[in-house]
Amino acid sequence: MTRDQAIGYIRDVDQGRRRWTQYLYGVDWADPALYDLVLNLETLSIPEAIDIVVAITEQQRCFDFGPGCQAVMDNLALGTRVKAAIALNPSTSDLEVEAVADGGKVWVRGKLNRAEQYEEVRNVVGGVPGVSEMNLEALSERYLQI
């Protein structure tokens, strides 16, 4: 897609999410009062914003990061890498899936559009660094449903 198409797509997705958040929670996600910190990236560079966030987290005891927090972050990162790999692979990019990780084991759930996508998902997930085991039993075959 072109740059203009990508910007339009992002704008449409954001509008849909904004409406969904309003419907579900009754709030406007753009309301800065909902956030502890708001940084305007039109007036700050990315490195400046990073410096601000780092300085705040280093000063706040509530951001202490122990082994339990590290495990949660590692699991979140692995699940996200799996979901991204599925979305970026041409043979599986049309799938809407959820990926959850726990210590190297990954559960993937969603609906397949074609029978051969099961093996394609297996190959993609198996190729993600950090995946030691996978459970794809929650993938259902939409194409078989009436």
What report would you give on this structure?
By secondary structure, the protein is an alpha+beta fold. It has three domains: 30 residues; 34 residues, no CATH class; 78 residues, Histidine-containing Protein, Chain: A. It is 47% helix and 16% strand. It has four helices and three strands; from the N terminus they run αααββαβ. It has a three-stranded mixed β-sheet. A hairpin with a 2-residue loop joins strand 1 and strand 2. The longest helix is centred in the first third of the chain and has 23 residues. The two termini are 33 Å apart. The mean pLDDT is 88.
Q: What is the CATH architecture annotation of the largest domain?
A: 2-Layer Sandwich
CATH class value of the largest domain: Alpha Beta
Class per helix and strand makeup: alpha+beta
Mean pLDDT: 88
Largest sheet: 3 strands, mixed
Strand content: 15-25%
Number of domains: 3
Q: What's the tally of helices?
A: 4
Can you tell me the residue ranges where pLDDT is under 50 for at least 5 consecutive residues?
none
Terminal CA distance reads: 33 Å
SSE order and pairing:
Elements (H helix, E strand, L loop, with lengths): L2 H23 L20 H14 L7 H22 L8 E6 L2 E8 L4 H10 L6 E9 L5
Parallel strand pairs: 2-3
Antiparallel strand pairs: 1-2
